[in-house]
Each structure stands twice: as C-alpha cells, then as structure tokens.
Amino acid sequence: MNRDKRPAASPDAASPDKEGFLYEPVERFGESMTSPKPWNKAALAGVELLNGRVAMLGFAAAIAGELLTGKGMVGQLAAMLHWYLG
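RESULT FIELD:
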C-alpha cells in the first residue's frame, strides 16, 4: 500500500520501507526542517563554552575529592551510597 501520492521506489532504494513510504529529505547541517532560518550559532557557541567550563569544574572536583579521600570517583560514589543507605 502506497501511503502518499508519489510512486513507490525500487526495493533497493535507501529511503523507502517495504510499503514504499518515502521519508522527508535530509536537511542541510544547521538548517531546520520547520524553518528556513539557520541555527543561532552565536548562542550555540555560548552554550558549548558553558558546557565545557562546567565539565572542567566537575573534573577538578573529582580530582580534589580523590586527593582528599584517597578513593577514586567510583569509590567515592560507593562510600556515599553506603553512608546514605547504611
């Protein structure tokens, strides 16, 4: 059964499934399917910068915790769970 008005493609085509349904075309990088406007790349760069800085803080906190307790990240998690549940 063909769900849309386009003719069914050959069975060896990449996009249609067994019933001949054709999916939406793949959009270009940075372009939305619902809007012709590209992504706000300045805002995306700011979000990625913040994400990287927070990741560096988390890594530094894990290293500081290891230096203070003598246990790695998994050991600290296990000790916290043992304290909390025990």
